[in-house]
Amino acid sequence: MRTPNISIRGIGVFIPEITTIEQAIAQGQYPAEEAELHELAGAAVAGNIPAPEMALRAARSALERCGQSPDELDLLLYADSWHQGPDGWQPQYYLQHHLVGGNMLAVEIRQGCNGMFSAMELAAAYLRSAPGPDGDDSTQTALLVAADNFGTPLFDRWRAGPGYVAGDAACAIVLANGPGFAQLLSVGSAAVAEAEQMHRGDTPLFPPGPTVGHSLDFAACNAQFRRRALADGTGTAALVRVHQLTLEVVDQTLAEAGVGIGDITRVAYMNYSREIVEQRCMAALGLPMSKSTWQFGRELGHLGASDQIVSLDHLLGSGALYPGDHVLMLGIGPGVTVSCAVVKILTQAPWCTGYPN
Length: 357
Hints:
Layout: E1 7-14, E2 18-20, H1 21-26, H2 32-38, E3 42-44, H3 51-66, E4 75-79, H4 92-100, E5 105-109, H5 115-129, E6 141-148, E7 169-176, E8 182-191, H6 218-232, H7 234-257, E9 264-268, H8 274-285, H9 294-297, H10 307-317, E10 326-333, E11 337-345
Parallel strand pairs: 4-5, 4-6, 9-10
Antiparallel strand pairs: 1-7, 1-8, 2-3, 6-7, 8-11, 10-11
């Protein structure tokens, strides 16, 4: 989807303390034999900090960084992958209560790891339908947040799935149909629906697992799906289709942005093992690992829906991006969904003080 005149005004993140892989191994939480294989370095662990509280802190940072008044926002979208609080309660209203007020549409997005991409698509469509800077009304703005704390009894962050550990974090981004330091050029998603069993395996749909104390084990679900794939062949075709669709979504998003893969300065993918990032993303795109954010992400773990925005914030803060640079953000989530976005840096982010020599 082309997103003309949709800008990024601010980004905020909250990353709790890091538990290193060495510490996790010493505590018997992470298999020592996987350390060298996957080259992961640690995971951000929030302890008892609720995910909505992390989201609130990231949102405050994003708004303060760009000087945006919370009561002037027009839309709030809250993306998450894991439980946020009491059943029957929705986390976006926590931010409305403590930060932005109630005079706007506020929606929770349950889109797994690709939630922020879905939020960007929905926000861009919302902002494009509203009067912009050339109209009679003022610029419209949207606050997009994502947050997860995986430290619960029904989830083992250190054995979350093949090639990754789960980290806790929150991110926030302010979009507008007016000026900003960066431009969202395009964003899009597509699904390989026939692979949806990859993330449920043989688990029955009812009753829902958490209601009967059933833990989430993506590694087991993936193994069950692959066994079925080998037995009937249909799953194998679905896995091949995921790879094909990834390239198709990237090509389409780049075309809509009006740039080529050679114009991409950096790639923000999911915080997975080196071999996954290299094989499924960078090599598939024909780009070197030096353009990836793997070295940064390996320290944090897979942050649910926050990986790409946290990496973008890191690239900006470390002086790795200059005006005219393009960032490709790419993710794969349950569904199986493939999502992609292209961001162009226009000026230095207002909270960054200077570029390194």
